[in-house]
Amino acid sequence: MTAPFPSRHLLFPAFIGLYVLFDWATYIDPLYGLNITPWNPDPALGLVCWLRYGWRAALPWFIALLLGEWLVRGMPAGLPLSLLLSLWLTLGYGLLGVALKRTFGSGGVFDSRHRLFQWVLIVVVGTLLNDVVYMSLLSLAGLIPPGEWVAVVLRFGIGDMVGVLVSMPLIWMLSSADGRQRLRQTVWHYETLGYLALAIAVLYLVFGTIETSEFKHFYFLFLPVIWAASRQGLYGTALMVFVLQLGIGGLVKWNNAVNIEVPELQMLDAMLALVGFSLGIVVDEVRQVSNDLKQSLRLAAAGEMAAALAHELNQPLTALSAYGKACEFLIERNDGGQGGEMLKSAVQRMIAESGRAAEVVRRLRDFFRTGAMKLEPVDAGQLVSSVSQQFFTPLRQHGVVLQVEDMPARAMLADRLQIELVLRNLLANALDAVQERPEGGRRITVSAQLLDSKKHGKGSCLQLSVEDSGKGVSPALLARLFEPFVSSKATGLGLGLVLSRAIMEAHGGSLWAEVGDHGIFRMALPLARPAVEGQENYVAA
């Protein structure tokens, strides 16, 4: 968003001062006394101002260029030519700013690998074209010796290109309140001091004596960049590569190392930036996908738990309705004695059922807040019977036979609400699978067996199996079945099995499928046993 007009009275003078300061700090080894130096981050500052304010930034940028020619270099090209050169640089970089604005909109810079490639392409082409015209004007004025045109084009163009590539992302982040806040949130961490300290150490290692350095150990400079990118994404990388550029430029200026291989340093800066930005973008994209997945899983959990909540509340609400009608009947009779006792008993039961409903809601709330579970002994037979009854109507409508084999008289240690959710999901998947079969061949079987500690490795467990007469799970589908958003149903989100497995693993159990000519899903949970004989407290067996 464009800042209000009064603020520009203060912003533009600050921009001019900072631009000239950048120009002075990076004026290391001018060529023929002109503005041809190996380090040019100041165009990045001008482009950011242009992206923020458009053509209104042209005049302050033009003034900054003229002041730089006068204060830093003493205007070696003379006033008329300096005016023309500054005018062209303002126009040329303004056109580059327009191209960036049209491509990236208000974002200004890249936020994906594809947009990074676009940004680099626009910056490289724009800076080189700007440089060609600039050097051609100097050559026509006789300020560049014959035959040196290509050399100065490369030196000035690469300096501008590297300065923009390395510096512009961080300057853009600092140019807005949202960017500064995000940058502060990202890098305001003790770990940032770690990779900054590492950057200083590797700069000393690689360029301890920069005048005689042959860049033999340049690869060490990638260590702090990779650290920053992998831990803090694009924002951490932008800070790191800018610090490295300042460090290298500062060493060159401090040591007056004018005879070093400038192109090698320029390309090193560029490669550090591009590798770091690529890694940072990948890290940010992975984190965004992870956050989106967590949100999708929360929504899936909300849907599944809503079904569980509806089932759990149905019984106490039905009971409350029945007791309420009984109270109305007793009040209408208005007789004392036994009728009063019956009324009192009905009211007490209403209170108990309302407390049961409140407990269900509380457990659901705790589950979403903290993932807390209420472990209790859950009888396998009662669990299967309770969930199976919910499918009575759809089973009858689709002509599906549900066979429940004898259940061992053992209890599992689990959160009943969550385990019912898992079993309900398996039965719903089986019901969908068998509908592809003709009537008479639609069958679902629920069975259970005990697993000893040697076989399962987690202590005594109870394994529940849900098998159906559907087409089964293929090896290819099995490899991806429990991945998010993988579903064989046209309308499925592919999150039910992911959520179910997460619940089972949180209970110390497991959930898996088996390849076969029919559907086979199995879930295993630890058995419960009394913590002390004769008491009702239970622990895992």
Task: Give a description of the structure.
The protein is elongated, with a radius of gyration of 36 Å. It has 17 helices and nine strands. It starts with a helix and ends with a strand. Helix 3 (58-72) packs across helix 4. With 541 residues, the protein is an alpha+beta fold. It catalyses: ATP + protein L-histidine = ADP + protein N-phospho-L-histidine. Its EC number is 2.7.13.3. It comes from Duganella margarita.
Task: Give keywords.
two-stranded antiparallel ribbon, 17 helices, alpha+beta, disordered C terminus, 541 residues, five-stranded mixed sheet, disordered N terminus
List the SSEs and their pairings:
Elements: H1 5-25, H2 42-53, H3 58-72, H4 79-104, H5 113-140, H6 149-174, H7 177-187, H8 190-207, H9 222-255, H10 262-333, H11 338-370, E1 376-379, H12 380-389, H13 392-397, E2 401-404, E3 411-414, H14 416-434, E4 443-451, H15 453-456, E5 461-468, H16 475-478, H17 496-506, E6 510-513, E7 519-526, E8 528-530, E9 538-540
Parallel strand pairs: 2-4
Antiparallel strand pairs: 1-3, 4-5, 5-7, 6-7, 8-9
Helix pairs in contact: 1-2, 1-3, 2-4, 2-6, 3-4, 4-5, 5-6, 6-9, 6-10, 7-9, 8-9, 9-10, 10-11, 10-14, 12-14, 14-17
